[in-house]
Amino acid sequence: MDHQPKFFENLSGAGKAIAVLTSGGDAQGMNAAVRAVVRMGIYVNAKVYFIYEGYQGMVDGGDNIVEVSWESVSSILQVGGTVIGSARCKPFRTREGRLHAALNLVQRGITNLCVIGGDGSLTGANLFREEWSGLLEELAQKGKIDAEAVKKYAYLNIVGMVGSIDNDFCGTDMTIGTDSALHRIIEVVDAIMTTAQSHQRTFVLEVMGRHCGYLALVSALACGADWVFIPEYPPEEGWEDTMCVKLSENRARKKRLNIIIVAEGAIDCHNKPITSEKVKDLVVQRLGFDTRVTILGHVQRGGTPSAFDRILASRMGVEAVLALLEATPDTPACVVSLSGNQAVRLPLMECVQMTQEVQKAMDEGRFLEAVRLRGRSFENNLNTYKLLSHKRPDAELPKTNFNVAVLNVGAPAAGMNAAVRAAVRVGITEGHKIFAVIDGFEGFARGKIKEISWGDVGGWTGQGGSILGTKRTLPAKYLEKIAEQMRTNNINALMVIGGFEAYLGLLELSAAREKYDEFCVPMVMVPATVSNNVPGSDFSIGADTALNTITDTCDRIKQSASGTKRRVFIIETMGGYCGYLANMGALAAGADAAYIFEEQFDIRELQANVEHLTEKMKTSIQRGLVLRNENCNENYTTDFIYQLYSEEGKGVFDCRKNVLGHMQQGGAPSPFDRNFGTKISAKAMQWISKKLKETYRKGKVFANTDDSVCLLGMRRRNLVFQPVAELKSETDFVHRIPKEQWWLKLRPLMKILAKYKTSYDVSDSGQLEHVAMLPKEAETGAI
Question: What angle do helix axes 638-648 and 603-616 make, rounded to 10 degrees?
């Protein structure tokens, strides 16, 4: 893709006025979007207005529509909900109401609207745009505005961002707020599991989602629930018996608790509602289990936004301003959304129509069609859930006589256990025997290997760290012993879950194939490391959890800094030489600067940052936050930067430093890491099955080609298997990072939002795509 980079410096907002409003149900992350729209708008010299209380404020006008400054959006990044308010608005549904709204906008010269809300809000915005010229003519006839204004403000441009915790909007992988809502649900489920365990209880949890089962489905996947009810996939006739059999079988397997998740809009195949109370009564009557219902309600909408939602909303907000600046009278109203890890623009009405198609399919009982219309990501979640939650009786399982070993390599990363659980269960379903290796390659050499069963991995998804144990040791010095163990246990395939060491380990094992036939078996690696530094994958398991830890800590530190006033914090993050955590942490926490190895910096830049902070202290925002990757520069250490800032800031601000350390490797995995780990690992095990069939000849497995040693990674919009041999050319082995990293493109974003002048390559954005054409494999940056 050799294109000339296109920079937005050529796009000026001078003379333009942009208004931003939030409408419909609130969602965490809306404030991050509002902040990004305001700051990007001001950055390109446009006037930016808040419209308070959604469309109601637009109709009422007056103090509800106010021009805002850079500082107006300070300290809102970490706040849930929406600070500019949201309201359901009846008057806007009438032409009379829209007439008032148009007058209020024209009086302020506003012809660019950024609407953050659900499909109802966006449909309303589109209608308003279509009627705009007619509304202005009517206002002119009534003498409210003059002919000059009709000509000057002839067109209204609209860009939407979808803020909805339900993730019910077609065309976008993740809507703003979905990830945070999953965080709330998982926090509750994790807490309930400990009490349910104590009393051998069954819990029925009701989660939001009147018309969409995304939250229920993904939280069921993320906590390994026993049963889930969602509107798109009603249970078959006789489900009551099937569910009760399943629950009692689980109890018989010594499982002390059952979790059942019900979406509030759950229905049976006759379109009759299935309520949490109905499920509870059924379990009590049929099985006599001690059963409780917990309705999560508005807890799911509350709390601070997750790191994912802040970054998503910040990227979308900037993209929305670019889309408004580039809009012409002929451009259809669009929504900015995420596909994989790429920002895309889609025609608003195409998305709305497709979203309505899903509802129509459900109303007419075409449930398979409804699942398909929800998109590939939803379908994959459903298939993975079905694969992992129900164990088929042994008699029904195929027998392949293949033995597959699973091991963790490198430092612990949250989500590794979810990946092991998925590998074990999918492997057993495919008919293999699965062996767990304790303590990585070192444990392998020592014979620490045992068969692992379906029940052994129950309850693993929510556990942090690595239950199997993990070591950084590489296999090169143990080749002889590992080959011997593979021979003894008749291992026919290897699945390695880990970081850069796992990648190096597979390279060493494939190099040793000439000498040892035992290594001529299919091998696959699933990337799991907080550093996110594995070549061949944009994301690795564990990085999202670490990012949330960094973001939470920065929030607390910012709070302490704003209490004392005029204080700058220097925070050191992990990541080896990879600046992912520092850069993305800075974007999610609203930092002033982030020092990383990938972007060399010198004393002049440090000086410029100090001056920038000195200027900032003169405004109402009297605090600073600076992140530094642990290996960004061997001489400009955290201590050095701290001392430099302390000296240069004397009399203006004082400094504190904080090294986050191993806190970033611990903790319960985030919903993203649980799900990413589960789905990527299930796919890797299916690849192993396919390769075993292909390479089984004359009673033995023999695989010695490059494509039998692969890394499964997330690339832009797809999950792809790449031979590790081919990834060598993409790797900087000295610094243990990929030579090209996608997230470096987001670096200018952080600088713009922190008020630095910079250039931002927008070549990737700007093309309007069509919904139907989106690759259905978009497995995402979403979960």
Answer: 50
- 718 DSSP β-pair partners: 715
- Among candidates 643, 609, 623, which has minimal Cα distance to 569? 623
674 is in an annotated binding site: no
E strands along 254-325, which residues? 258-263, 291-295
- Asked if pLDDT for residue 312 goes beyond 90, the answer is yes
Question: What are 378-400's pLDDT values in tens digits?
Answer: 999 999 999 998 888 889 999 99
The DSSP 8-state label assigned to residue 176 in this structure reads B
Would you call 330 a catalytic residue per the annotation? no
Give the active site residue among 166, 179, 309, 544: 166
Q: In the chain, what are the helix, strand and coil shares in percent, each to the nearest 5?
A: 45, 20, 35
The 10 Å Cβ neighbour count of residue 141 is 9
- Other Cβ atoms within 10 Å of 155 Cβ, number: 15
Pairing of strands 112-117, 291-295: unpaired
For residue 531, say whether it is annotated as part of any ligand binding site: yes
Residue 341 annotated as binding? no
Q: DSSP alpha helices (H): ranges in 8-115?
A: 30-43, 54-60, 95-107
Distance CA 169, CA 490 (A): 49
3-class state of residue 184 by DSSP: helix
Tokens coding 741:
């990293």
Structure tokens at 696: 């089984």
Contact 231, 211 (CB under 8 A): yes
Q: What's the pLDDT at 773? A: 42
Phi (first) and psi of residue 118, to 5 degrees: -90, -170
* Distance in angstroms (rounded) separating the CA atoms of residues 68 and 66: 6
What pairing do the DSSP bridges indicate for beta strands 737-738 and 731-732? antiparallel
Distance in angstroms (rounded) separating the CA atoms of residues 121 and 194: 40
Pair of tokens at residue 506:
């597979």
- DSSP assignment of 89-146: -SGGGSHHHHHHHHHHHHHTT--EEEEEE-HHHHHHHHHHHHHHHHHHHHHHHTTSS-
User: Could you tell me if 259 and 193 are in contact, meaning their C-beta atoms sit under 8 angstroms apart?
Assistant: yes
Does the annotation list 656 as a binding residue?
yes
Is 362 a known ligand-binding residue?
no
Contact residues for 637 (Cβ-Cβ < 8 A; gap 6+): none
Residue 574, annotated as binding a ligand: yes
In single-letter form, the type of residue at position 136 comes to L
Q: Judge whether 13 is annotated as a binding position.
A: no
Write out pLDDT tens, residues 519-531: 999 999 999 999 9
Show Cβ contacts of residue 264 under 8 Å, excluding neighbours closer than 6 positions. 206, 207, 208, 209, 210
Please say if the pLDDT value at position 311 is more than 60: yes
Q: Which residue from 73, 45, 43, 40 is spatially nearest to 620, judged by alpha carbons?
A: 73
In the chain, % of residues over pLDDT 70: 96
CB 177 within 8 A of CB 27: yes
Q: Cα dihedral sign for 187, 191, 197, 199? A: negative
Structure tokens at 557: 């530190």
> How far from 247 is each of 205, 287, 463, 506, CA to CA, in Å?
15, 9, 22, 41
The verdict on whether residue 567 carries a ligand-binding annotation is yes
319-361 per-position pLDDT tens digit: 999 999 999 988 899 999 888 778 889 999 999 999 999 999 9
* Residue 618 backbone dihedrals phi, psi, to 5 degrees: -80, -15
What is the reported pTM? 0.94
3-state SS, residue 437: strand
Is 88 annotated in some ligand binding site?
Answer: yes
